[in-house]
Write a structure and sequence with these properties.
The protein is of the alpha/beta class. The chain has 16 helices and 13 strands. 37% of the residues lie in helices and 11% in strands. InterPro entries: Kynureninase, PyrdxlP-dep_Trfase, PyrdxlP-dep_Trfase_major, PyrdxlP-dep_Trfase_small.
Amino acid sequence: MEPLPLELPADTVQRVASELRCPPTDERVALRLDEEDKLRHFKEYFYIPKVQDLPPIDLSLVNKDESAIYFSGNSLGLQPKTVQTYLEEELDKWAKMGVFGHSIGKWPWITADENILGLMTDIVGANEKEIVLMNALSVNLHLLLLSFFKPTPTRYKILLEAKAFPSDHYAIESQLQLHGLDIEKSMRIINPREGEETWRTEDILEVIEKEGDSIAVVLFSGIHFYTGQLFNIPAITKAGQAKGCFVGFDLAHAVGNVELHLHDWGVDFACWCSYKYLNAGAGGIGGAFVHEKHTHTIKPQLVGWFGHELSTRFKMDNKLQLIPGASGFRISNPPILLICPLYASLEIFKKATMKALRRKSILLTGYLEYMIKHCYGKDKEGTKKPVVNIITPSCIEDRGCQLTLTFSCPIDYIFQELGKRGVVCDKRDPNGLRVAPVPLYNSFHDVYKFINHLSSAIDSAERKYGSVV
């Protein structure tokens, strides 16, 4: 989907180690990679939590003044430092002007969402008229499915991956029920092959080819929340549309993480949240995409007054003049207090660029993968060394920055011990530890320190439970 770097991450690590005449796992390698990182200064744009402020911390194990190893941007991104300033500006305007804030100031509240659309275009690879900022992801998914899912007696299925994010699963179930369809027959779920954790693209395409005539909508994650697998969006889109299906994606874990080209790929629709890699804060405003080819053929099924053309919106004559395309899906006025944090983050993305962030991310996550495999990969038969397995695809084209780890020792204990040491990541059932080094604010030295903390946690587990392989 995107060209490979000229040098694979493992080769880069080994080359730097050779230049420094030290082992690849030496701290000097991490420090050299940070020195060469042209994006390293972007970390200063964010507040990095201190370990002393984290609930699970054990102050006997850490220096309380150190920054946390924050590898949980896939759940909640860190706060840009300008957020407070932008919020205070709008609160001050509200306090001083009241209702006049709707039409006055840097961001007139009526058009605040439209004013920052230009900052989203490169992140999702779309035109401004194809993007809308509104609601939350699941609400947007429902609104989009109401328009794109039009079942017939012969084309009535929605195709999705097994263990999709629960909210997506529930949304699809409820959409099927809304149309009076049998969930068992209409919800077509693709599982990985037996004994495998992730999906093979050829298997997905085979199902689409065989059953596509009965599928109305193909709806996949861009990146699977649990495994961290990046699906082949253009291939799935092309295959689905060739069989007459609409193809959409939940980009919650892909937006701001990998390069997207929704317009060029011809994706029919997509939606995303903004509180993960886009760093817009918990419950941040969501986004949606509707390809311009549907501008005059797909309309919202639920309409509100902010889908009405601005020039006549306030005539209040109840004669709808629907904005063509994505903007017509807007129902209510934009929440300025949610626009501010998103703007604060998007202006950082604009400076960094997705292309440069993705380039760093490939090396940063590749370095993490190299260190884990070097220290805790499957060892020679007969040894009792604990094993850390990476279920996320090893091919850099098939993943973003997240690696999902499983352990041969108790994962709950490992997770707790990492938390005590100031490592912020998350555990997801059944047995995955999600670790996501984010290129905007994480460093190679963060990865090095994480490996040390992981080793300490595993050593503690061995002392408590004995050698478990």
